[in-house]
């Protein structure tokens, strides 16, 4: 630009020479415009501008809402304890962040070991001669897998098969008692007396309330999802046991298998590679947990033949049947795979992780970027809640901005009682909870998807001859087969929704599920994803 000339002068000159715009010129007011003409023109222009601004604002709002719809979908997983919420979340992870899921598998070893050791102890407890006089003890109800006889007669009233080798088993499996205590301690935060959910938490006690009354959530998807198995050889969890923890506790035994904060179990079972470098020829460092003499695998491996004998002993099976204990149907069941699970270099498979049982405490947030079709990706926040009765108070603060709920009701639980309150039937509890959720005014605009879960266990139970009408008189004398019963539950839950919902327009989506089954659940999750996205757009009036 030549010196001494202003920029606007220059621009004006250039416009007049080369940027002559015939349209702009045509729109200019006539040079001989009268005052009235000018006033009426300006009035008309102002009105046109008002209309145009209105349209702009509408478009801006729409863009904003579109962006909002694209940016975030909040999904709450609800249902009673052991209904399968955390397992559903694992399936979401497996589908959307598979490498992270794989990288985490090794960390589940401690939980799986504890699940296995607890199954063994439950067998020994059931065989114990004292158990015959002590069967009403709450400990026998520690998980939902204990079947309460419908006639109210305690199972111990049935005269029992003796297990001649009981004392031999007890002696050979004695090391597992210490191991159970050790693993429980490892997986339990010092502030808790029972281990809980494996998800990462910021707070110490599970509730660090924020301004909206919610516990501060954390995202657990590991950042180091690039860790491959070969890079991530873990070391023994026991090397990480805090030396300051007390070694004596009277509360560990019989508590449900649960893990609380990342400060304990995930550190205790590091992904390896990070905490210790792989073995080098000269350093003498260990290559993996199997070389650490303190690792739990050695005790388990040594006890494996005795566990195997115990589980295969016909007298034991007979005794368990008499006591109506069906371990196969219980959470965290690994007794049919003892050699594989107790092998020194055992690495949990996807299915093992899906079967592992850890109780969730509080509410934990997980984020996924989910793409579907041409969609650029939607940020999903999935909230996994603790379903036990003393955990449900934490749900309500999440109701205000949730877009969808996946409610899980384990329909195989019709003959079981709540662990929290052995007087309450689990299915009754699920139905009441369901009614509470679908009738909630705050949730009237929320899309609801119902998973009638544990259908595989329902099928197994019916095959074993368990009758629904012995536990649910309203079923009457309808056929006791899977098809009729699943249809009955579908109608029952659907009917409650229909009569209790404050929003009669709301469509309810019901799926019969077995969320431990990856193939079936993958398809269902994709369906649910589309339903939720569609419902979300609809509620924003964008489609
Ligand atoms: N066989 C079978 N097992 C299931 C199914 N769904 C869940 N499980 C198992 O049941 C146990 C409990 O499942 P979770 O997902 O931990 O239950 P939850 O609803 O998160 O329970 P809380 O955290 O206590 O509220 C786990 O061991 C699961 O592997 C199913 O459909 N079939
Ligand atoms: Mg859970």
From TrEMBL:
Domain of life: Eukaryota
Keywords: GTP-binding, Magnesium, Metal-binding, Nucleotide-binding, Transducer
Upper lineage: Eukaryota, Fungi, Dikarya, Basidiomycota, Agaricomycotina
Gene3D superfamilies, alphabetized: P-loop containing nucleotide triphosphate hydrolases
Positions of region (Disordered): 1-44, 188-255
Compositionally biased tracts (Basic and acidic residues): 1-18, 35-44
Cited Pfam families: G-alpha
Binding-site positions, Mg(2+): 360
GO BP annotations, alphabetical order: adenylate cyclase-modulating G protein-coupled receptor signaling pathway
Bias (Low complexity): 222-239
Protein name (record): Guanine nucleotide binding protein, alpha subunit
GO MF annotations, alphabetized: G protein-coupled receptor binding; G-protein beta/gamma-subunit complex binding; GTP binding; GTPase activity; metal ion binding
Originating organism: Lentinula aciculospora
Biased composition (Polar residues): 196-213, 240-252
Protein residues bound to GTP: 354-360, 453-456
GO CC annotations on file: cytoplasm; heterotrimeric G-protein complex
